[in-house]
Amino acid sequence: MSQPVFVLVRPQMGENIGAAARAMWNFGLDRMRITSPRDGWPNQKAVAMASGAGRLLDEAGIFDSTAGALQDRTHVFATTARPRGLTKPVVTPERAMEMAAGMIGRGEKVAVLFGPERAGLENDDVVRANTIINVPVNPDFPSLNLAQCVLLCAYEWRRHTVETAPERTDMAGTQWATGIEVEKLSGHYEERLDEAGFFFPAHKADTMKLNLRNLWSRMPLTQADVQTLHGVLRQMVRWKNRRD
Amino acid sequence: MSQPVFVLVRPQMGENIGAAARAMWNFGLDRMRITSPRDGWPNQKAVAMASGAGRLLDEAGIFDSTAGALQDRTHVFATTARPRGLTKPVVTPERAMEMAAGMIGRGEKVAVLFGPERAGLENDDVVRANTIINVPVNPDFPSLNLAQCVLLCAYEWRRHTVETAPERTDMAGTQWATGIEVEKLSGHYEERLDEAGFFFPAHKADTMKLNLRNLWSRMPLTQADVQTLHGVLRQMVRWKNRRD
Questions:
Q1: A151: nearest CB among B148, B164, B168
Q2: Structural contact between residues A48 and A154, judged by C-beta atoms closer than 8 angstroms
Q3: Closest CA to A48 of A24, A14, A25, A20
Q4: CATH architecture of the domain with residue range A5-161
Q5: Where are the domains of chain A?
Q6: pLDDT by residue (tens digit) across B159-211?
Q7: Which of A83, A188, B64, B229 to pair with A90, CA 20 to 30 A apart?
């Protein structure tokens, strides 16, 4: 599936360009564009930081203006810390990447603009955007850095495009205990604990037994768990008999 | 609302502890616990990196074991890069923080474990967890660092707890053009363009007019936009008359 282009506008430190590349590739995005990198291009600090994601820098498009970087784009998102008074819709990264996935599915060419470390995007850049992305951070501490903002957008892109079962589990293939197995376990404990005089006083016995059965049935027991629990009880009985 | 405790297990570099504190506070979380920080405690590099989020470090609980840090918790999530063969549910950060919000709403005390930079959590730590969190990264480049993993979990926590209108807009208070205003705009253009001989050839005129009307109605026009567009057309007419 094609993907949005992430455009770093006038980035300052090479380390941040490299960290942004890593953040993109962590979530499968590899189309980076850069406008007027402060320290020129290529940038060795960017390469060093990008390490495994260096390919993104090799293939990055370098432009001398935001307009140039957006020439072939049909929809542009701009990330800003505090939305200005510009007349544009402001959405969360979640909503933005959901929109982007839909647009790209319909053949649109999408870009996401990220501003320079210090100041962020200028209005001159933001006016070129169709939609503003604003990360809903803690208003008392809205200090996301460039790579973090890229990370959150890339994460949301993957969340809305790659089919990850909402809840995978390592327990695939484990043998779950069946109703009858849990029933037998309950019965085993009830019987032995009855002999042991556990259900006392008598007028509380029924409630105690009910609660115990409920305890077993509430647990996500595997067949192995059940065997272990049977074993525990058997051993206690053996031990008791030994002590007689 | 009470919140989950984020536990950094045996963190190595102070910078990463500070960055984790920033990432938490970016999304309004301020309950940090740390077990056996490699370089001791307090850690000046952590303080320097945390800057605005230094309070989290001052108030962080320091423990000498994972068990100690979890004593008062009722549900524990463990973040791992590659889920081991342990019999536990594995969920995404999204699902985990959704679960955590529900649990905390019901009075449970939740912790999220984050492993050391290099190796991540050991099985000894993971067995103490009820649920494993696995970030669905690019399998070809699953290299999230500690602070990034903390950032994504904190982001998801805020996403599932703080009411942020899904789609805020800077256009609150702008005067949208009414149907009649758009109608008049369409009429104005149609009339003048007709005079100008725009709708040619004749047999295409109706379709061209329909498309033009559709163009105006498709746009989210403000009253100011409408005035601008009227002005544009008037000016073209003035200009034309001047040139006669």
A1: B148
A2: no
A3: A14
A4: 3-Layer(aba) Sandwich (3.40)
A5: 5-161, 179-243
A6: 999 875 445 455 556 677 777 888 899 899 899 888 888 888 899 888 888 87
A7: B229
